[in-house]
Amino acid sequence: MGALIDTAFTVYGLRRVTARIDAENQRSWALAERLGMRREAHFVENAKFKGRWSDLLVCAVLAREWRARA
């Protein structure tokens, strides 16, 4: 995943990378956190899936933040 973010910034010149994660998916949130992404939003009962409402987390990292962690 880190290589994918690095490619987004170095090859494609993106300024920002975001991830939209189901709040119940703790492993995905932990991975985003390990990669240096920060949580920017928590949408409560954002979407109905298989008959129940689920929350959505949005996290992001900027290119300058990504470069600074190296």
UniProtKB/TrEMBL annotation:
Pfam families: Acetyltransf_3. InterPro entries: Acyl_CoA_acyltransferase, GNAT_dom, Ribosomal_N-acetyltransferase. GO terms for cellular component: cytoplasm. Residues 2-38 form the N-acetyltransferase domain. SUPFAM superfamilies: Acyl-CoA N-acyltransferases (Nat). GO terms for molecular function: protein N-terminal-serine acetyltransferase activity; protein-N-terminal-alanine acetyltransferase activity. PANTHER family: RIBOSOMAL-PROTEIN-SERINE ACETYLTRANSFERASE. This is N-acetyltransferase domain-containing protein. It comes from Microbacterium testaceum (Aureobacterium testaceum).
